[in-house]
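S.,

As promised, the 2-O-methyl-1,6-di-O-phosphono-D-mannitol run. Input:
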Amino acid sequence: MGSCRDIAARMVAPGKGILAADESIGTMSSRLEKAGVEATAENRRRYRVLLSSAQGLSDGASGIIFCDETLGQTFDDGTAFAEAVNNLGILPGIKVDTGAKPCPGLPGETVTEGLDGLAGRLEHYAEIGAAFAKWRAVYVIDAGEGLPSDGAIRSNANALARYAAACQAAGIVPIVEPEVLMDGSHSIQDCAAATAKVHEAVREELALLNVDLAGIVLKPNMIIEGKDAADESTPDQVAEATVEVLRAWPDELAGVAFLSGGQSPERATANLEAMQRHDTPWPLTFSFGRALVDPALAAWHGDSSLVEAGQKALSDRVAANAAAVRTRQPA
Ligand code: 5MM
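Predicted complex:
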């Protein structure tokens, strides 16, 4: 357990965050196609090499989350991804869920799958150098329909806890990601209520399976109104509401690394910076996907002469978020 605690502390080290580059083959392919790039395994590899080898990435990124396809690929010189990023001073991580699938009995809701054979897969990922893993549960808010339902909350919390316990048994730090989606026109208060309920169930299930909170990283959504809501909350409002929900987590939790959830890169950074003005027992950092990589993909769009432009776009976003996190006042 000692080493999970050490790795988790490195993942949320002061002034650093985590790059989420773990899009599944389907998601990555459609993002490449949208950017005008042919969706091939080789182009997915080129894109992940571009991201991972951006100049100075390790100054602001403690880790990168990959998907299974990428961990089986190599840098241009033949070095496997896990080894290559490790050599750059960055911890390699692996998404081990197999996706959020429609949950039988719960129309409109999902349960994340991937527990079958997980112990064996974790053993393999540890052998090839993965230091941490990630599992994402997804919840929708629909107040009219009473969503998220207790069934979705309980089913996903149980799966997250079983995943986390299996990771720690394999010496791999679990990133526990319960994501309440921004889809819809709900208020910031609705998001706070749903997220608090989701977190409570996750805490209960983690405790039942004796998961060591000092050896996990929590990856939650920020507390924010739905994408289609009429008014946009300010960074101070988002930070205050988010920290209030998070306060239910015990002090021993290693740290919190937020997802960006579809916010613009600039808004996600401003909200992250506002969080730092709150005194919390755990570090509050970033594990953004789209808010870090969208500008890089747009700048590169598959053109080999624009690799440096793509890398600069990524480095700029990572540096902005690392700077936001560094505004935290030491306790
Ligand atoms: C990178 O996107 C991840 C999920 O991809 P798939 O849906 O294809 O499996 C996702 O888990 C991501 O790590 C988090 O949701 C954070 O990403 P954002 O873009 O919300 O910061």
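Residues 94 and 214 are 19 Å apart (CA to CA). Residues 2-325 form a domain with the TIM Barrel fold (CATH 3.20.20.70).

- D.
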